[in-house]
Amino acid sequence: MKKALITGVTGQDGSYLAEFLMEKGYEVHGVIRRSSSYNQERLEHIHLSELLGSNGNIKRFFLHYGDITDALNIMNLISTIQPDEIYNLAAQSHVHVSFEMPGYTLDVDAKGTLNILEAVRILGLAEKTRVYQASTSELFGKVQEVPQKETTPFYPRSPYGIAKMYGYWITKNYRESYQLFAVNGILFNHESERRAENFVTRKITLAAARIAKQKQQTLQLGNLDAYRDWGYAKDYVECMWLMLQHDKPEDFVIATGEMHSVREFAEIAFQHAGIELQWTGVGIQEKGINRSTGEVVVEVSPRYFRPAEVDQLLGDPTKAKKLLNWNPTKTTFEELVKRMVHFDLEKVAKEENTVKMFE
């Protein structure tokens, strides 16, 4: 039975990856940070499956307290677990927040990656343990060519992108210097119903659901003309695994090859919530109007603009399709948005029923 260690296991990608690996027969170990508030909602179904004996009463899912900024802690965990595969998904991954917390972003996204690679090297696990580093399309930032592929020059435009660039290059350096099987997955935007509510896509789908249920009046957004390559997170974790099963360590761009604007995302989201949007005005004066009622439901707020904007990101998944036989459009953009909205419509309905129970 192979062992996998996942940092950032409580996040969107980490929870999907844990599911995927357990389905493949892995023993999965996740690293969680100690918190006074419960942060394992995305893992509850895995815990339940273990309790019900769905794995034949063999425990295959373990959680460990830790933090990738603590080099000694990470070395102890890797030494104890002796994983065959490490997936470093832990990060301060919110771009806007990285401008407010650049030092913390550096500690987690750059130094944290180094701590993992150093542990594998010092423990003499270079021949046993394969390492996946979660890289990002934010490396490309001010894009130098369209679409972006593995050979496109980097030009990050945020503390997050810059910290992740260190993570990318130190991973590549350890691969070339110490013969580690260490790879970078340059993932473009990937979303799901498990995305945190402070990310723009989930913010849109949740607001659409709440506005449709008359629980919220308006949604405030930043740059409606930002274009992104959006895929489904559950499809993307499969590609993470495929990268570590490849016969040699290589870096891959993971994307759909399609680009859509924030405005288009909002239009489709509201449509699936039963609201047709009509746009009026330009720039910060632009508004989304509910066509049937005439009410303003979407506004543009300067507070959500980045200090350095990334206007468009479009990935070229050709290499992953060819070498890994991966299908980047298994879930279409339309289906992705639909799933997120329907999930949030159910979430709002449940919240409403809960309130009624206590009235």
From TrEMBL:
One of its GO terms (biological process) is 'de novo' GDP-L-fucose biosynthetic process. Gene3D superfamilies: NAD(P)-binding Rossmann-like Domain (3.40.50.720), UDP-galactose 4-epimerase, domain 1 (3.90.25.10). This is GDP-mannose 4,6-dehydratase. Catalyzes the conversion of GDP-D-mannose to GDP-4-dehydro-6-deoxy-D-mannose. Keywords: Lyase, NADP. It comes from Ureibacillus sinduriensis BLB-1 = JCM 15800. It catalyses: GDP-alpha-D-mannose = GDP-4-dehydro-alpha-D-rhamnose + H2O. GO terms for molecular function: GDP-mannose 4,6-dehydratase activity; NADP+ binding. InterPro entries: GDP_Man_deHydtase, NAD(P)-bd_dom, NAD(P)-bd_dom_sf.
